[in-house]
Amino acid sequence: MKVAVITERRPHERRVAASPDAIKHMVGLGLETVVESGAGGEANFTDEMYRAAGATLVPDAASALADADIVLKVQRPIVGSDGVGSPDELHLMKRGAALIGLLAPLQNPADVQAYASAGIAAFAMELVPRITRAQTMDVLSSQANLAGYKAAIDAASEFGRALPMMMTAAGTIKAARVLVMGAGVAGLQAIATARRLGAIVSATDVRAAAKEQVESLGATFITVDEEAARSAETAGGYAREMGEDYQRRQREKVIEALRRTDIVICTALIPGRRAPTLLTEAMVAAMAPGSVIMDLAAEAGGNVEGTKPGETVTTANGVKIVGNINTPSRVPVDASALYSRNLQAFLALIVKEGQLRIDTADEIVKASLLTLDGAVVNPALAPVPPASSSALPPVAPPPAAEIPS
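-> structure tokens emitted (405 positions)
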């Protein structure tokens, strides 16, 4: 069994799908591992480190992917020209190979069809269910954790003042006030990091269960409607998108907090859809000059009106809106190490006795599997059969809009 790891060629991506430690583990399982030269360079993993772990180094993606049984990726492979000026990675994979990565299938259904046409067994790691058995495979949590940390650090760097209270002979510096919108994995880590930096932190979330988590970190929880919040969490541990009335009342409550807030960190995302707007132009206008907003949803349309992906925008009233792209990739060493451990755990599900075994009865495999044997098999993506085909079982519709925590 040959496992291939190649350089990530999409813009703003510095991670690699397998660390040298993960390669060593795979070699120990009897898998042949092939790594494209320079694949781990942005994450400070040298070719020599991969060689020492037991990998075979090859000069290019074509050499790595040739005859590979399993292809490990961070982002989805390049299909056709794909607008990035890189080789067609999907075309280089053999029919019957397994592709594992963050494939963004809801955002890129045409790519999913391409995987099926190419005869690839594609697994989207972001669709791994949030169950106890799958905790070690939860890539959304491992990457969001680092994104929340980095967002707080970047906010402190952009802010023109110190975060902690300081008492000096020249006078006292007041502690900065940070508001985190969304208390999921990224939000909770942002809260913890901002607290460690000495800021006074508050947070909002539509889920009532988040209140205890926020307060356990020493932050203040801003609630809008506790009764409505009790029904805001789905069985999968995500926050459901709320109705317009709730959102209106939330905006009013947040505006009150914004008038005394120095830094806002927004973390809300909805899989396969545009990110919800948490801060309008009017709300941003309520903030003081020099305030900073970190929008972790910039790539998905942004949580803030005025966000520009990959740019820092300064509004007319002097507020910075930072729309960094791919925040986990801004911490490439740790992000790659955690991601590769997630993949390592997932491989244990589909590799048995040195052979690829795809058990579609396994709930983790079933949820993450997109294509198999030339067909789209994931219920969230497979076409709904015609009404006249009453003999066919109905295909489940896409899951309700949710905000990953």
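Residues 39 and 64 are 11 Å apart (CA to CA).
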